[in-house]
Design goal:
Blueprint lengths: L2 H8 L9 H11 L4 H20 L2 H10 L2 H13 L3 H28 L7 H5 L5 H18 L7 H8 L3 H13 L2 H28 L10 H56 L3 E13 L2 E12 L5 H15 L3 E7 L1
Parallel strand pairs: 2-3
Antiparallel strand pairs: 1-2
Helix pairs in contact: 2-5, 3-4, 3-6, 3-10, 5-6, 5-11, 6-10, 8-9, 8-11, 8-12, 10-11
InterPro entries: DUF389
Keywords: Membrane, Transmembrane, Transmembrane helix
Organism: Kandleria vitulina DSM 20405
C-alpha cells in the first residue's frame, strides 16, 4: 500500500460515520426552538451575564456549555448542505429569535445590575481578530466531525468553550445598556464570526460526507453558491484582519515600552554602583530645532549628592552614548 493511501485511510472521515438518518435526526432535533430550549437559553444568558459582571471565567465557561445556540447553527448547515431550504429558513429564523431574545434579556439584566464596571471578560469580547476566525473554523470542524460519528463524540463541550456564542451576545447586552454602540458592534461582530464559521465548517463536512439532498440542484447553481460563499467569507474576514493588525501593533508597542523601562532600570543600577555620588536617574526626551527640522534626543537627569567632576561626567556621557547608540545629554541636579 502506498504512503498516500495509508495517510488517506488514516484521516478518512467515512470509516466510523453514522448513518445519514442518524445524522439528520441529531442535527435537526438539536436545532428545534422549543420551550425547554428557550428556558435553557434564558438560564445560559443569566449565567453568562453574571459571569461577565463578576469577571468570573469559570461561570462564563458554564454558560458556554449549557447554551443551545450551536444546535440552530448546525441545523442551518444541514439545511444548506441538503438543499432543504425550508429547514434552512426555519433554522435561520429560530437562531435570529434566540439571538434577539438573548440580547434583549441581557440588556435588561445589565440595566438593573448595580455593577457597571467594564470587566476584562467583557472587554475581551470586543476585540475580534483573524485568530477568532481560525478558532471558530477549527472548532466548527471538530464539532461536526464529532456529531457525525457512530458513537457521539465528547468534543461538543470543548467546541462550545472554544467558539463562545453566548458571552458575546451578553456583552452586546451590556454595551447596549450603556449606550456604547462601537463596543456593541465589536461584540456582535465576534458572535457573527463564530456563528458564520461554525456554519461554514459544518456545511463543508456534510457535503464531503455526501448527505442526501432533498431536491436536485444543478451544477450551475452550486457554482453560483460557491462564488457567493467565497465572496461573503472574504467580506467577513476583512475586519478581523484589520483588528489583528491593530492588536499585534499594540502588543509590540507595549513590549517595546516594557523593554525600554527594563533597560533604563538596569542602566540606573549600574550607574549608581560605578558613580556613588548619583542618587537618582530619570530619562526624558528633548526636542530642538536643527536646520528647521525637529530633532529628539535623550536626556538623562541625574540627582547627585555632590556634582560630578568633568572627567566623570565625560566618561558617563560616552558610556550612555555607546549604550543607546545616539547622543545623550546629561543634566545634573544637586539634591
Amino acid at each position: 500500500m502506498k504512503i498516500k493511501e495509508i495517510i488517506r485511510e488514516a484521516f478518512s472521515l467515512r470509516n466510523d460515520t453514522a448513518s445519514h438518518d442518524t445524522i439528520k435526526t441529531r442535527l435537526v432535533d438539536d436545532g428545534q426552538v422549543t420551550g425547554s430550549n428557550m428556558s435553557i437559553l434564558i438560564l445560559a444568558m443569566l449565567v453568562a451575564s453574571i459571569g461577565l459582571n463578576m469577571n468570573s471565567t469559570a461561570v462564563i465557561i458554564g454558560a458556554m456549555l449549557i447554551s443551545p445556540l450551536m444546535g440552530s447553527i448546525h441545523a442551518m448547515a444541514y439545511g444548506a448542505a441538503t438543499a432543504d431550504f425550508h429547514l434552512f429558513r426555519k433554522s435561520v429564523i429560530g437562531l435570529m429569535f434566540q439571538v434577539t431574545l438573548s440580547i434583549l434579556a441581557s440588556t435588561i439584566y445589565f440595566r438593573l445590575s448595580p455593577i457597571t464596571i467594564e470587566t476584562s471578560e467583557l472587554l475581551a469580547r470586543t476585540t475580534p481578530s483573524i485568530y477568532d476566525v481560525l478558532i471558530a473554523s477549527c472548532g466548527g470542524l471538530a464539532g461536526i466531525i464529532g456529531i457525525t460519528r457512530k458513537e457521539k463524540s465528547n468534543v461538543i463541550p470543548g467546541v462550545a468553550i472554544a467558539t463562545a456564542l453566548m458571552p458575546p451576545l451578553c456583552t452586546c447586552g451590556f454595551f447596549l445598556a450603556r449606550g456604547n454602540w462601537l463596543r456593541f458592534a465589536s461584540a456582535m461582530y465576534l458572535f457573527f464570526v463564530n456563528a458564520y464559521f461554525i456554519f461554514l465548517s459544518a456545511m463543508t463536512i456534510l457535503l464531503i460526507l455526501e448527505v442526501p439532498q432533498v431536491r436536485h440542484v444543478s451544477p450551475e447553481a452550486w457554482k453560483k453558491l460557491k462564488k457567493r460563499v467565497i465572496r461573503n467569507t472574504i467580506i467577513v474576514i476583512i475586519p478581523s484582519l484589520v483588528m489583528a493588525g491593530i492588536m499585534i501593533n499594540s502588543q509590540n508597542s507595549s513590549r517595546s515600552t516594557s523593554n525600554a523601562v527594563g533597560a533604563i532600570e538596569n542602566v540606573s543600577k549600574q550607574v549608581k554602583i560605578i558613580y556613588p555620588e548619583i542618587e537618582n536617574i530619570s530619562l526624558g526626551n528633548m526636542e530642538q530645532m536643527v536646520n528647521n527640522k525637529k530633532q529628539t534626543s535623550k536626556v538623562f537627569i541625574i540627582t547627585v549628592k555632590e556634582p560630578l567632576s568633568n572627567e566623570k561626567k565625560e566618561q558617563l556621557n560616552k558610556w550612555l552614548n555607546a549604550i543607546y547608540n545616539e547622543k545623550v545629554t546629561i543634566i545634573q541636579r544637586k539634591k
